[in-house]
Structures are given as C-alpha cells and as structure tokens.
Amino acid sequence: MARRFAILVAILILAALVPIGYQCLAPYQGFGQPVFVEIERGMSSRAIADSLAGEGVVRTSWIFLAIRATHPRARLQAGEYRFETSQTPWQVFEKIRRGDIFHVDLTVPEGSNIFDIASLLEESGGAKSADFLRAGRAP
To answer: What pairs with residue 81 in β-bridges?
Structure first.
C-alpha cells in the first residue's frame, strides 16, 4: 500500500513538473516586431519580470522570477535590451545577467557638425535626428 502511494505521489509530482519545465525551456515570442526593454539601475527582479512579460518576451513574470530564484547571487545588468527572435526564459535571463545590451556603433567623420551627426545617427537606427537635436539643446 505504501509503495503504491509513493508511486502515485511520484506520478503527480512529475505531472506537475512537466508543464513547468515546458514553460521554462520552450522558446517564446509574444511580439511581432523587435522589442526593446529598458532595465534601469536598481530595478527589482519583480519589475524586470513584469516588463519582460508586458512586452511579450516571456510568457508570464513568474517564469522569469522562478529562474531568478535559482540564481539569487546573479547580478542583473541595467541597460536597454533588444529582443528580435523567440528565446527561452533561460536565454532571456542569461542575456540580462551578461549585460548583452543593445548598442549602435557610430563613426563620426572629422569636421561633422551636430546636424551631420543627427543624420548619421538616424541612418544607423540609433535614434531619430529630431530627438538627438532636442537632447543636444537641453542644458
């Protein structure tokens, strides 16, 4: 009788772990266009998870938090992250842990003025020229 009970408990535990494993290991893409997620310095794990879930990078925030719980000492890096393709929650976590932020390489030719730089920046996909010029005028 005790053996049957132990087998039943093992089957129930396995049945509960399969969907959780699927949620953690299956790639997910809940967005159509590339998505940017800004993680600010000092942001809590809960806030990061909510942002990722809100943008469709992970299915639900609790998946990211469960993975975070397995790495409590990992430092999640602030920055702007770009997600273009489907990734597993583990891959998303590792990207943020490594600090694999989005950046644009920009070479400014000597003698360029602020308008030339704004145009180069917009062509490279880094920012809109109007936004750059507005920021350049701000004190």
So the answer is: 37
